[in-house]
Write a structure and sequence with these properties.
Radius of gyration: 42 Å
Number of strands: 8
CATH topology of the largest domain: Outer membrane efflux proteins (OEP)
CATH superfamily of the largest domain: Outer membrane efflux proteins (OEP)
Structural class: alpha+beta
Strand content: 15-25%
CATH architecture of the largest domain: Up-down Bundle
Number of helices: 8
Helix content: 55-70%
Length: about 450
Amino acid sequence: MKKKFQIILILLLSFSVNAQETARISLKDAVDYALQNKSDAKKAQLQIENSEYLIEEARAGAFPSINAHGGLTYNPILQETAIPTSGFPGGDQLSDPFIILAMGQKWNSVVGVTLNQNLFDQTVFTGLKAAKTTREFYRINAQLTEEQIIERVATAYYNVFVQKEQLTTIEESIENMTRSRDVIKSLFENGLAREIDLDRVNVQLSNLNSTRQQLINAVSLTEYALKFYMGMPIAQPIELYENDFRVEQLLLGESTNIEDRTEFKVLKKQQELLQLQKEANKAAFYPKLSLTASYSYMGQGDRFPIGANLNKGVYWSDFSSIGLNLSVPIFNGFAIKARVSQADIQLRELEQELADTRLSLDLEYNNAKSRIENSYTDIENQQQNVDLAQKVVDNTENNYKLGLANLTDLIESQNALVSAKNNYSNAVLEFKLAEVQLLKSKGELNTLK
């Protein structure tokens, strides 16, 4: 038993280690994972599936409905009717002025089937069109949901990159400052440096380590956000591909086709649905024609009729009917007219929303273009600043070792390099976020899949 327990413990530990292996993911991997696992994407697919059942429900109104019915009635006291005897030949010779007749039998049983078929009902035809349009609406809405997921995942993905870049910059600064501290410590021990210089470097190192810890926390938080948007377990370690943070030249057009934007397509489909709703309200003005047919079998007698026949005092007979039902609306207090007017108001409101959305999407595209153009210039400037700051650090370190620069110059040059690298990372982040917005404004976010 002890050996078995040890084997099970080893297997569990092995499984735990394997479960926590770091997953290397690219932006495309992150997007694909999110589209497969995020609940928003799954719910959008369920809505598409549900639209098929909406169509089936609407189509059912064009098919006949068949219902079976049955009943069993016991009459403890039968209703009686009195017929005057004077109405019969020789009735005047009878002693009683009335003949008393019992109505029906003690037991009645009936089973049957009824068929109803709509021959003309405009609301059924309009409802079927609306159901099919709803399916198209859900498909477009699912595409919009995908684009929203892609946008969130891409933004979170790039935010993780920036935090990690800034963490790397701080760690490099700590490494450089540690080397400088060791040099100053050696000089101090040999009487060639002041103790205050050593203390100042230690304070600087302490501040850098504090900043490093804050960035470690920031990296964890941004990774948690990314994994949440992906629908990935938070405990799963991940590692990102650095190639996804490259800056590449993008083609910028003068304009984009607003009609291709999913947001605009959703509104256009809503417009179709509102138009169908208006037609459905108008359909209430149309007459309705339906066919009804029924067939029943009934048993009557003084005893329980099920299983009994005429020999046992139960009489069975069948009956049937076929009819046409016509309903013509004449007046309903102007309720239908009011509903049609309400639908017309909703259509006009949506037309205003479409016009505003068109302007908004056009503005979004031009803003994205401007951000991209400005980001190119900013990235070039920040790269030059990084190169210059690195050159200043190298020269200051050499001058400090030769006694030609003081400690303040050394610390300030190190801080300037950290600031320049962080500014460069932020410029690249601004470019990548603007790239996402540009793809969104052109309706091309799916290229990140």
